[in-house]
From TrEMBL:
<dbReference type="Pfam" id="PF01370">
    <property type="entry name" value="Epimerase"/>
</dbReference>
<dbReference type="InterPro" id="IPR001509">
    <property type="entry name" value="Epimerase_deHydtase"/>
</dbReference>
<keyword id="KW-0511">Multifunctional enzyme</keyword>
<protein>
    <recommendedName>
        <fullName>GDP-L-fucose synthase</fullName>
        <ecNumber>1.1.1.271</ecNumber>
    </recommendedName>
</protein>
<feature type="binding site">
    <location>
        <position position="142"/>
    </location>
    <ligand>
        <name>NADP(+)</name>
    </ligand>
</feature>
<dbReference type="InterPro" id="IPR028614">
    <property type="entry name" value="GDP_fucose/colitose_synth"/>
</dbReference>
<feature type="binding site">
    <location>
        <position position="189"/>
    </location>
    <ligand>
        <name>substrate</name>
    </ligand>
</feature>
<keyword id="KW-0560">Oxidoreductase</keyword>
<feature type="site" description="Important for catalytic activity">
    <location>
        <position position="109"/>
    </location>
</feature>
<feature type="domain" description="NAD-dependent epimerase/dehydratase">
    <location>
        <begin position="9"/>
        <end position="239"/>
    </location>
</feature>
<comment type="similarity">
    <text>Belongs to the NAD(P)-dependent epimerase/dehydratase family. Fucose synthase subfamily.</text>
</comment>
<feature type="binding site">
    <location>
        <begin position="107"/>
        <end position="110"/>
    </location>
    <ligand>
        <name>NADP(+)</name>
    </ligand>
</feature>
<comment type="function">
    <text>Catalyzes the two-step NADP-dependent conversion of GDP-4-dehydro-6-deoxy-D-mannose to GDP-fucose, involving an epimerase and a reductase reaction.</text>
</comment>
<dbReference type="InterPro" id="IPR036291">
    <property type="entry name" value="NAD(P)-bd_dom_sf"/>
</dbReference>
<feature type="site" description="Important for catalytic activity">
    <location>
        <position position="111"/>
    </location>
</feature>
<comment type="pathway">
    <text>Nucleotide-sugar biosynthesis; GDP-L-fucose biosynthesis via de novo pathway; GDP-L-fucose from GDP-alpha-D-mannose: step 2/2.</text>
</comment>
<keyword id="KW-0413">Isomerase</keyword>
Amino acid sequence: MESLAGKTVFVAGHRGLVGSALVRRLESEDCEILTATRAELDLCDQAAVRAWMRDRRPDAVFLAAAKVGGILANATYPADFLYENLMIEANVIEAAFRADVDKLLFLGSSCIYPKFAEQPIVEASLLTGPLEPTNEWYAVAKIAGIKLAQAYRQQHGRDFISAMPTNLYGPGDNFDLNSSHVLPALIRKAHEAKRGGAKEMVIWGTGSPRREFLHVDDCADACVHLMKHYSQAEHVNVGSGEDIPIYDLTRLVCDVVGFGGEIVRDPTKPDGTPRKLMSADRLRGLGWAPKVPLREGIAATYAWFREHVADA
Ligand SMILES: NC(=O)C1=CN([C@@H]2O[C@H](COP(=O)(O)OP(=O)(O)OC[C@H]3O[C@@H](n4cnc5c(N)ncnc54)[C@H](OP(=O)(O)O)[C@@H]3O)[C@@H](O)[C@H]2O)C=CC1
Ligand SMILES: C[C@H]1O[C@H](OP(=O)(O)OP(=O)(O)OC[C@H]2O[C@@H](n3cnc4c(=O)[nH]c(N)nc43)[C@H](O)[C@@H]2O)[C@@H](O)[C@@H](O)C1=O
């Protein structure tokens, strides 16, 4: 699928962080974008997904719908993260097969890799060691999604591919402190500490784990690039190629937000995996590179947060 022009493209999860960025990105592709809210189509409902896909018959599908959350949500709701993600991906991939969808891109996550994988993590590290316990349920579901796409390719010759993004952030993120990922949490915490005149702001864990961050508009652009130019069984890492300790990230966010107080660590909260930097070689080899520098991306996301969440 070298071009999306004239194609009908279903973005599953279009109200989410990644799905909404995909819709923004696809607006320049001259394609027809199909979406469905959860009220219109519950992706955990197999019969409904089959009927929807049979009636619309999209040419291409971006599977960006999932049960998603940060380290605490993942560790607290293992059954929800495993069950809902298995249902969503099984239903959408199987229905896409039945409806003769030409191409499907499944979105997984960098948490599929072993907790102590050699860094930077190459795609071939998958299933070479034990997973990080805080998110193993989610990771097992995402590994099953990769395997489903590969199985339909192997058994039925379908062009179903998988992308594994690193930790993402940007407009439309979840800023709820209990369920969010670290970057939106830090933006909210720094903003509220500044507003309230607090002397300190608390971060979870030791602050020493390292994470790799990618702006969601870069992720969406990479997914469109893969949809057009990649047709192989192996999943592809989607990252920035650079990581940063959580403590340093906190200082960066505080600087952007303008909070000058103390950063206090809460060691009763989990650190998760110590480091999760993915190798960017495969995607670079396919001719794609990220555009949004971390500081600029954080500043733009903070502006979005102020307009849509904090002062809304
Ligand atoms: N955010 C991140 O840092 C990363 C995300 N990813 C991957 O990207 C993908 C998208 O994540 P992200 O955009 O962050 O997640 P969000 O939570 O922002 O969005 C998920 C979307 O899926 C929809 N959805 C969930 N369950 C159902 C359901 N049963 N029926 C219909 N729709 C449903 C949600 O609908 P509703 O709006 O109704 O809730 C929402 O629109 C996921 O596969 C995730 O693994 C990968 C790496 C990092
Ligand atoms: C994308 C990825 O995201 C998750 O894995 P994670 O990277 O561990 O998630 P996280 O962003 O929540 O935390 C990153 C680090 O940051 C620390 N941290 C500090 N202070 C806060 C804080 O206030 N909130 C949060 N959430 N974390 C904080 C936190 O303790 C940890 O050390 C999984 O959902 C996984 O399944 C997945 O796919």
